[in-house]
Amino acid sequence: xxxxxxxxxxxxxxxxxxxxxxxxxxxxxxxxxxxxxxxxxxxxxxxxxxxxxxxxxxxxxxxxxxxxxxxxxxxxxxxxxxxxxxxxxxxxxxxxxxxxxxxxxxxxxxxxxxxxxxxxxxxxxxxxxxxxxxxxxxxxxxxxxxxxxxxxxxxxxxxxxxxxxxxxxxxxxxxxxxxxxxxxxxxxxxxxxxxxxxxxxxxxxxxxxxxxxxxxxxxxxxxxxxxxxxxxxxxxxxxxxxxxxxxxxxxxxx
Length: 254
Known about the structure:
- The structure is a single chain.
- By secondary structure, the chain is mainly α.
- The protein has helices at 4-17, 29-36, 40-56, 64-70, 82-92, 100-114, 119-135, 141-144, 175-180, 186-192, 214-222.
């Protein structure tokens, strides 16, 4: 048992400062799988090491995607290691051999959590979701379901279900992204509106959006050049501006 602080320090450097120099990196399998099961930031940091063992050393982890799905909670858009987590999640969901129900569950859960996410996270997650639709066309039923949310008395998706296959995500629709089309931040509303159109085959590059901060968004808005908007108005007639103002007979605006 390691202290939480030490766990984090080890996992941050493990994938690039330890595993490449070990004769048998597979010896770290038990350590990383246990760390992955702890939850919170420790699980997020264990993803880097697990990624190397799965892709380079044939580690089999039957419940990997189930655990990855369970890591998606409201804090995921606010944690310090958000960029690292979504970079790896993007890699893990890149395979075209993943079943549609699994990808749909990730799309639906990310969209539901996006309802309370800050704008800088939304500008990253919406292109992320669009890329998942491009890779897995079978999931587009979430956007193009006949009638959409209007024909549903309630959303069949079960948010509390820990097993993606039982979440009924494919039976649902993506009303959450439709709600974000009315977001107070114009850039978010514009990004969400992309799903109303036909998606191009070329994936969006989200690498530059992973570490987008609230400060950068604010700074961008502040530096925008002000545009003079011409206003059309009626010349004031009378004291209260009305055409047939009885007060105009007795009072003058000179």
